[in-house]
Amino acid sequence: MLKIAHIAIVTKDIEKSKDFYIKVLGAKVVGITENERLKFVYLNTGGQVIELLQYHEIEQKEREKGTIDHIAFYVDDLEKEIKRLKKLDVEFLFDSVREVNNMKIMFFAGPDGERIELMEKL
């Protein structure tokens, strides 16, 4: 059985969204990072993590705001999982595994085009 790692939500204003989850839902900030593409705010919501994302100006137009961006699952062996999924003809969204925030990651599309992320801790 897979375990949910986090649920990511694209935001228009990450500070406003962060304040909402803290004030309205009692979430706690457990991390804030940024790279050349986007800013991340990680919130603990009672054992589950919500990852708020704000894309920089250029990429913001590519995604809708306020929607769930993807569902992420931890795996023990990402390469093994990718091989298994290839046999099932899933549509991968990257050509190769990426490394982000001390994780190896790969995205694939679900049956309705939803994005699903697999994560292996480095």
Structure description:
Helix content is 21%, strand content 45%. It is of the alpha+beta class and 122 residues long. It folds into two domains: 1-74, 2,3-Dihydroxybiphenyl 1,2-Dioxygenase, domain 1, CATH 3.10.180; 81-122, 2-Layer Sandwich (Signal recognition particle alu RNA binding heterodimer, srp9/1). Strand 7 and strand 8 form a beta hairpin. It is globular, with a radius of gyration of 15 Å. Strands 1, 2, 3, 4, 5, 6, 7, 8 and 9 form a nine-stranded mixed sheet that branches. The longest helix is centred in the first third of the chain and has 12 residues, at 14-25.
CATH topology of the largest domain: 2,3-Dihydroxybiphenyl 1,2-Dioxygenase, domain 1
Which class do the helix and strand fractions yield? Answer: alpha+beta
Spatial shape = globular
CATH class of the largest domain: Alpha Beta
Note poorly predicted spans.
Answer: none
Indicate the mean pLDDT.
88
The CATH superfamily of the largest domain is 2,3-Dihydroxybiphenyl 1,2-Dioxygenase, domain 1
**Separation, N- and C-terminal Cα atoms:** 21 Å
Major sheet: size, sense and barrel closure? 9 strands, mixed
Write a concise keyword list for the protein shown above.
single chain; 122 residues; alpha+beta; 2,3-Dihydroxybiphenyl 1,2-Dioxygenase, domain 1; Signal recognition particle alu RNA binding heterodimer, srp9/1; 2 domains; 9-stranded mixed beta sheet; 9 strands
